[in-house]
Specification:
The protein is 62% helix and 1% strand. The protein has helices at residues 23-29, 35-49, 57-70, 78-91, 95-102, 105-111, 117-130, 134-147, 151-167, 172-181, 188-201, 210-224, 237-244, 249-262, 266-277, 282-298, 304-312, 319-329, 340-349, 367-374, 381-388, 397-401, 412-420, 429-443, 449-454, 470-479, 487-492, 499-510, 513-526, 529-542, 550-557, 562-576, 583-592, 597-607, 615-623, 639-657, and strands at residues 14-15, 18-19, 355-356, 364-365. The strands form two sheets. A two-stranded antiparallel ribbon has the order 1-2. Strands 3-4 form a two-stranded antiparallel sheet. A hairpin with a 7-residue loop joins strand 3 and strand 4.
């Protein structure tokens, strides 16, 4: 197995953590009789030699030895070794690695009939990927399927046929085989797998009644699936965790494959989810909840039906299922409205869920209450009032209240009281004050001005720990129309990092362009990135009064990151009213950085008919099935509301062009 291993100069080779001198030990460890030693060796191989799919010179040097290990029946757990070889050759995208694995593809052929089902399962996909004679490959798979008795290996063989179809789409025999596997008398799980592979590689061969068929097969499969052992049968830690959140990863993979293959066919996907979410099996419904989350995050469609069905899971007996539904609904913001009644029922019946207490740190708002509040439902207000009256305010509570806007007005006195109790010398002053300020801004509570002014008392030298919240305090005073009452403190901030915020507030207070324009130009030219963007936004507010800043705005719109270019171009329009230097910048930012599309669309809406040359961007966005936030992995927990806001802004643009 290890002939020639000591002749390799491993110390001169590299892996993710540096020198590969430790690789021979891991290779030998893969053949160990000790399970812990094998696991350590496998962790080393995946964690360094093939870390995150990367291929190094040491990875290539390992390939012959991995094949020797895979071919030796005496080596335990060879399926993991075959999976490692497949990952190196197929998933890394490295041509050298692919060729190195393909060169020994005959080993995979010999493993199709191995006594170890784990080896057979891994070898199936390897044969489809690395053996180059297509007629031979489909023959091998066709002959193996009728004699295979292990259900998991049969699924792997079906997936291998699907991989073959995608590799050789013109091979009708392989498509026919998949179609046969999707029909009776095969096991429902195998039929589901075949439907998923047909959807990926030959959608024209799918049955017309795909969704009802898939739902029926899922239920038939679930009826045959072994139940999770009860406490009396398994009282280990793992057993208890499984009871808290039982899983069926195989079933989840089958349905995920089908959802992935359907892609932008959101009508069929929502119908499929409806069937999954109505399943009598809670494990199927739990899997469906997470698939619904992926659909909601990634695609645009009418989701009221599936959202309501996710909300129905809040009444499930299974705590893990309820928690999954809460987690998904809390990301939907306004789109969670169809589930609001279920959310309110859960919040009303379970005060223990209003906050979430961690082993360390400040409590946070409970998921169900957070989802209800983010949906804009005013029924959250009485519960929020009770929490505000308690001894400890959960972290970020004010940020959640802000989603209610003016509907949260009854909470204003309590918010002001909390803000007034913050110790000005506390290191946590900004953490405590910022969410409260956000809520008071959203409510528009002008009675909060004294408490906000207190945060700026003695500025700038006396800010101390409050320095980090000063910008938020200034913005709140500005939003409440109370900047004039803080003019001395604002002027004192004009030479601090809060200069752009203070200058904008002073402009609102007295409209003195001569006082604030030099400050904003200076910040736009040499401030921190966040300060430069804020300075551009403040100049946009000034409109034509900021014409002296046009040269600096043109420079900012022509260089720097897309975010700065976008806000600078928007300011160019508001200040100079000339679309010619603005539209090319906005078009480039739209394509280059999807995260700028919201600000770009808002600028186009403000431009009215002058935005006509960019109509094509807006109309294309409104018919695109994919969320713009899904293109670069999303924007965290706000991906959905950001995309919904973009769609609203695009509709406003078109209304202004008509």
């Amino acid at each position: 197995m290890f002939s020639g291993i000591d002749e390799v100069d491993w110390a001169s080779l590299r892996h993710a953590c540096g020198s590969a001198r430790d690789v021979p030990g891991w290779l030998r460890g893969l053949a160990s009789a000790d399970a812990a030693e094998r696991q350590t060796a496998l962790d080393g191989m995946f964690g360094t030699v093939h870390h995150e799919g990367n291929v190094y010179d040491s990875t290539l040097a390992c390939v012959p030895f991995l094949f020797s290990l895979a071919a030796r029946e005496a080596v335990p757990e060879r399926g993991c070794i075959v999976e490692l070889l497949v990952s190196i050759g197929a998933e890394s995208g490295d041509a050298r690695a692919r060729d190195a694995v393909r060169a020994d593809g005959e080993v995979f052929v010999s493993l199709l009939g191995d006594p170890d089902p784990g080896v057979r399962r891994a070898a199936a996909g390897a044969v489809a990927r690395f053996v180059d004679d297509p007629a031979r490959v489909i023959g091998l798979l066709r002959r193996r399927i009728p004699v295979e008795r292990d259900g998991r290996v049969l699924l792997a063989l079906t997936e291998a046929v699907g991989a073959f179809v995608r590799r050789y789409p013109a091979r009708a025999a392989a498509v026919d085989l998949l179609a046969a596997l999707s029909a009776p008398p095969h096991d429902p799980g195998l039929r589901l797998a075949a439907l998923g592979q047909l959807a990926l590689g030959a959608p024209g061969r799918l049955p017309a009644d795909l969704v009802p068929t898939a739902v029926r097969l899922l239920r038939e499969r679930s009826a045959r699936r072994p139940r999770v052992p009860d406490r009396s049968a398994n009282d280990t830690l793992v057993g208890r965790l499984r009871r808290l959140r039982p899983s069926d990863e195989e079933g989840a993979r089958l349905l995920r494959t089908l959802h992935t293959a359907l892609g932008d066919r959101t009508g069929e996907r929502t119908a499929l989810l409806a069937g999954q979410l109505a399943s009598p099996d809670p494990v199927d419904r739990g899997n469906a909840v997470w698939m619904a989350a992926a659909l909601f995050r990634g695609w645009r469609a009418r989701f009221a039906g599936p959202v309501a069905l996710v909300g129905a899971q809040l009444g499930a007996e299974e705590e893990w299922l309820r928690d999954a539904a809460v987690s998904v609904l809390s990301e939907l913001f306004g789109l969670a409205a169809p589930a609001a009644d279920d959310l309110h029922a859960l919040v009303a019946s379970r005060p223990d869920l209003w906050t979430h207490r961690w082993e360390r740190g400040t409590p946070t708002v409970g998921g169900a209450l957070k989802a209800l509040t983010r949906s804009g439902d005013p029924r959250a207000v009485p519960v929020l009032a009770q929490i505000l009256a308690g001894p400890v305010v959960p972290g970020g509570l004010g940020d959640e209240i802000a989603h209610l806007g003016p509907a949260a007005a009854p909470l204003a006195p309590a918010l002001r009281h909390r803000l007034g109790r913050i110790r000005l010398d506390s290191p946590a002053a900004d953490t405590l004050a910022t969410p409260l300020l956000a809520a008071l801004r959203a409510i528009g509570d002008t009675d909060a001005v004294p408490e906000v002014l207190r945060l700026l008392s003695g500025a700038p030298d006396g800010l101390g720990a409050r320095d980090r919240v000063a910008g938020q305090a200034v913005g709140t005073l500005d939003a409440l129309g109370a900047a004039a009452r803080a003019a001395p403190a604002l002027r004192a901030l004009l030479h601090t990092r809060h200069a752009a915020a203070a200058a904008g507030a002073l402009w609102s207070a007295d409209g003195d362009a001569q006082a604030v324009l030099p400050v904003l130009v200076r910040e736009l030219r040499q401030g921190e990135p966040g300060g430069r963007r804020l300075a551009a936004r403040q100049l946009a507010r000034m409109g034509p009064a900021a014409r002296a800043a046009l040269p600096e705005l043109r420079r900012a719109a022509a260089s720097g990151q897309a975010g700065l270019r976008t806000v600078a171009a928007s300011a160019l329009w508001h200040v100079g009213r000339d679309p010619d230097p603005v539209l090319p910048v906005l078009r480039a930012a739209w394509s280059e950085s999807p995260g700028t599309r919201g600000p770009v669309a808002r600028c186009l809406a403000a431009m009215g008919p002058a935005a006509e040359p960019l109509r094509d961007l807006v109309t294309a966005e409104l018919v695109a099935p994919r969320r713009h936030t899904a293109r670069a992995g999303g924007h965290g927990g706000r991906a959905i509301p950001e995309d919904e806001a973009l769609l609203s802004a695009c509709e406003e643009v078109l209304a202004g062009l008509s």
